[in-house]
Structure to design on (610 residues):
């Protein structure tokens, strides 16, 4: 019997499947999920839409030379930065929140969480596996926007001899420009991980993935409203959204780091809190 | 199995010494679970003897699934003790690689094919190593799903979903297989397949816990039964013992039913007439005493036979008595 062959060796005594195999299975599952692919597709449209916008407003029909955005931006390397900034307000959080929602609440809703716990995937390993899935979605989502943005920027707006004209008026070489884009991409991933960790935490508290989506996106909107109320200014340092504008700092020269650093630290605090709640909850959660 | 006549007191007390029998596959003691103010399981003591096929019966909401969930560590008992393949407490999960389960219906992802769903489940099985496709295909074959293996789970019929759930429980050779209403939604052929699988497991020495509300199913495949009612265990034990002790009424054919009725009544039983025959419910009188009473009264006895009860009667009596 083939199954007896399979249980020979270490497998006969171990009490958990190898972590590598669990991670591979999780990533395969995340990346084959239709809604993940749909969100990636939508994200790819963001830089393309911006590029089209720039190209059409930049046409000679306006009679005032190149379009405003194109003039400020100077060249296509600005496009991925703008696209990431725009997506960070809603679409990127949506991608990560939906990954977090499916990770635990979604599995509970389809009855598959039970199977994972009975297998057994240890509860700690389960959190590791699920967090890896969310991180993967965050990284890939940002990569889609950044890479498509660079391509669309180069094709539509033009590379301007491979330089980046900063908001401060200086010009950066190709290497520096790509470095700046990588920096804003990494920073965006950091902000998304904060959202992902919170989504995972909420995901452990419900078996309705929609609740997770509603809480995360609703929370971001509430944060936005709170930050617009002058008398609540003291709240600003606590709100994740406060630092969301720091991404465009990479377009300045010299590069101001304080906004990027403080928003990343804030994101880390959210990551720690989110993962803490997730771990605490998954130790006892019924499935 | 010792049983006082006329009572159903055949529940083996947990302290009863069980010499020369291997350790039970699972054992629960004083198990109690409450969800808010609802008591789902209340003081259950139950043993699954190693190698037995235990049928767990009970009306809807009697606590069958909750009991199974506690056995598998999915729900924490409010009080009491669970032992699974010799593991208890925080160590309970160490027994799970050798336990296969289909609980509360099959759970799979609709956008994956049945086979891909099983491959994902196989990746989480500690006992599997190397190529996962072989055990997955073997399990699919075993439940008769090979032909539909590459179709999306979304399009599966209820019976096919149930078969896939069974396949997941059979991915690895198990020491204990827990099946929670496995024939839900299955056609007669599917029901036969499930019975065949249970019989195969039994032959291989696997302990099976089968929760069901289909009495005929339990009677057909189980060696032991446990009956739950409103969270309490009414009775448990070997099926044959329970049926003998439970409702083994005597049917006596005589040449003078009326005299016979009086004679047996005087002797201390509560007989009645049915279709011209005398029926003596299992009770204070053993068969020889009934016959002796009839002979003393001068009644000619043509035939005496003890009617073996069906599980259905036992179940109905148990659950109604208590209602």
């Amino acid at each position: 019997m083939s199954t007896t062959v399979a249980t020979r060796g270490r497998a006969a005594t171990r009490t958990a499947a190898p972590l590598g195999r669990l991670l591979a299975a999780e990533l395969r599952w995340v990346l084959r999920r239709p809604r993940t692919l749909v969100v990636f597709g939508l994200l790819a449209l963001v830089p393309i839409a911006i590029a089209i916008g720039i190209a059409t407003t930049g046409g000679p029909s306006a009679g005032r030379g190149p379009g405003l955005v194109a003039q400020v931006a100077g060249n296509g390397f600005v496009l991925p930065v703008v696209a990431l900034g725009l997506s960070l307000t809603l679409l990127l959080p949506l991608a990560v929140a939906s990954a977090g929602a499916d990770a635990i609440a979604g599995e509970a809703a389809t009855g598959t969480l039970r199977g994972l716990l009975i297998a057994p995937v240890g509860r700690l390993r389960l959190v590791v596996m699920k967090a890896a899935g969310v991180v993967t979605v965050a990284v890939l989502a940002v990569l889609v926007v950044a890479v498509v943005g660079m391509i669309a920027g180069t094709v539509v707006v033009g590379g301007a001899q491979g330089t980046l004209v900063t908001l401060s008026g200086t010009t950066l070489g190709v290497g520096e420009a790509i470095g700046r884009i990588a920096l804003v991409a990494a920073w965006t991933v950091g902000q998304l991980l904060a959202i992902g960790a919170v989504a995972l935490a909420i995901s452990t508290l419900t078996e309705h993935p929609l609740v997770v989506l509603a809480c995360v996106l609703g929370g971001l909107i509430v944060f936005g409203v709170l930050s617009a109320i002058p008398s609540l200014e003291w709240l600003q340092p606590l709100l994740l959204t406060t630092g969301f504008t720091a991404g465009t700092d990479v377009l300045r020269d010299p590069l101001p780091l304080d906004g990027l650093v403080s928003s990343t630290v804030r994101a880390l605090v959210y990551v720690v809190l989110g993962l803490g709640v997730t771990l605490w909850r998954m130790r006892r959660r019924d499935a | 199995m010792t049983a006082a006549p006329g009572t159903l007191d055949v529940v083996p007390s947990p302290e009863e010494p069980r010499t020369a029998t291997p350790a039970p596959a699972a054992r629960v003691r004083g198990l109690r679970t409450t969800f808010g103010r609802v008591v789902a399981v209340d003081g259950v003591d139950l043993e699954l003897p190693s190698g037995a096929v235990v049928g767990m019966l009970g009306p809807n909401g009697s606590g069958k699934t909750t009991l199974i969930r506690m056995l598998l560590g999915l729900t924490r008992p409010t009080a009491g003790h669970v032992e699974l393949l010799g593991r208890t407490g925080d160590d309970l999960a160490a027994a799970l690689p050798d336990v296969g389960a289909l609980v509360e219906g099959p759970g799979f992802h609709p956008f994956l094919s049945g086979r891909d769903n099983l491959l994902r489940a196989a990746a989480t099985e500690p006992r599997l190593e190397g190529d996962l496709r072989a055990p997955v295909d073997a399990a699919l074959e075993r439940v008769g799903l090979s032909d539909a293996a590459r179709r999306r789970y979304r399009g599966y019929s209820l019976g096919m979903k149930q078969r896939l759930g069974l396949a997941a429980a059979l991915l690895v050779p198990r020491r204990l297989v827990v099946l929670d209403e496995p024939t839900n939604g299955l056609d007669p052929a599917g029901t036969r397949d499930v019975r065949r699988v249970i019989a195969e497991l039994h032959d291989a020495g696997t302990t099976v816990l089968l929760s069901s509300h289909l009495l005929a199913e339990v009677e057909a495949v189980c060696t032991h039964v446990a009956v739950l009612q409103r969270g309490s265990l009414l009775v448990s034990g070997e099926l044959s013992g329970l049926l003998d002790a439970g409702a083994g009424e005597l049917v006596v054919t005589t040449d003078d039913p009326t005299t016979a009725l009086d004679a047996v009544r005087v002797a201390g039983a509560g007989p009645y007439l049915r279709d011209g025959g005398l029926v003596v419910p299992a009770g204070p009188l053993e068969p020889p005493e009934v016959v002796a009473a009839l002979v003393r009264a001068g009644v000619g006895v043509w035939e005496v036979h003890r009617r073996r009860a069906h599980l259905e009667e036992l179940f109905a009596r148990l659950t109604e008595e208590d209602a």
In short: Chain B has two domains: 26-244, 249-307. The longest helix of chain B spans residues 188-203. Chain B is about 30% helix and 25% strand.
